[in-house]
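TL;DR need C-alpha cells for one chain.
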Amino acid sequence: MDANILVLGTLPGMRSIQEQQYYAHPRNAFWPIMKALFAVDGDYESRRRQLIANRIAVWDVLSSAVRRGSLDADIRLDIARANDFAAFFSSHPDIGVVIFNGKKAEALFMRFVEARPNDPSARFIVLPSTSPAYAAMPYSGKLARWRAAFGLNDDAKI
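>> reply
TL;DR here they are.
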C-alpha cells in the first residue's frame, strides 16, 4: 500500500540535518500533532513506519538551498533547487492530497515545481507551519487545523 498523502516542508532545519530526521527540533509541533491524530509514537524509526502505515509520505520542496540558520525567510531563492517531483509522483501514483506545512512550503512548490500528482483531482492544502518559529498560532490552533485537514474528529482516525 503506497502513500496517498504527501506532507511537504520547505527544507530541513539545522537540528533535522544534524540528526538526519524530519522535524527533529524538540519544539516543532509536527510529531506531537501526528501523535494526536494517528497515535504515532516511539523512536524516530517507529514513527516513520507508523506514518507509512497511515499512507503518509513526508518530504521537502527543496533538495538544496543556502540559508543562515533554520528560518525559511532566510532561504536564498536564487540558488534554491527543488526535489524531483516528476519522479516522486511517478513512483507514488496514489498521492491524492498534498499538504503544505506552512505557506512558505506552498510558495516554494508553486515557484519551483511544475510536476503535479497523477490524480487530476488531487487536493492541495496549506496548513499552519508546525515550526516553533511560527508562534502566531498556539499548538491547540495548529492541531485543530491539521485535524480538520485530515477529516478527523476527536474520536476518528484515517
